[in-house]
Amino acid sequence: MLKPFYSDKLIEAGCDEAGRGCLAGPVFAAAVIFARDFRNEQLNDSKKLPEKKREELRKIIEEHALAWAVASVSPEEIDDINILNASYLAMHRAVDQLKMEPELLLIDGNRFNAYKNIPHKCIVKGDAKYMSIAAASVLAKTHRDAYMLEIHQEYPGFGWDKNKGYPTRQHKLAIYKHGLTSYHRKSFNYYLQLKIDF
Known about the structure:
Elements: E1 12-18, E2 27-33, H1 51-64, E3 67-73, H2 75-81, H3 83-96, E4 104-108, E5 120-123, H4 131-152, H5 160-163, H6 169-178, H7 190-193
Parallel strand pairs: 1-4, 4-5
Antiparallel strand pairs: 1-2, 2-3
Helix pairs in contact: 1-4, 2-3
């Protein structure tokens, strides 16, 4: 089982993002605060969980967390401030929406832009080490996947119901064929991203 807490005393919010490496769609982030007695042996990095398990855990997290929130940053904002800063901004927006204020932020990764006056701890592969970060990764991933399913109805030719905006061969071919949509991140270097082996 993942570690329940980093600190013995502070109110912790685990934070993680989803969609950073995508060609299309917003980047999503989540923040989760658990009670001291919360435990779940199934929680893990969302990338290591099958879709069905992620959806089951989403319900458990949203029902049992003391506080949770999900936020996003649009493709236009990503183009304006770059994807790294957009990931931090999405986490800031998620923390903004929490119904209780954390005393420590646990951040998945090795860098972060400080949020107000709340201290933070960056943890590499934190979503596979701490329950709150894993929970945040599950919420960010499931909420983003649901959004990509919605916009897939508008542009079914890009396969977003399957690739969720990531640079798969199908997605790249669709861009070659149809061009970019309003949901694509225009600042990404498509000459490098769109290499396809025919």
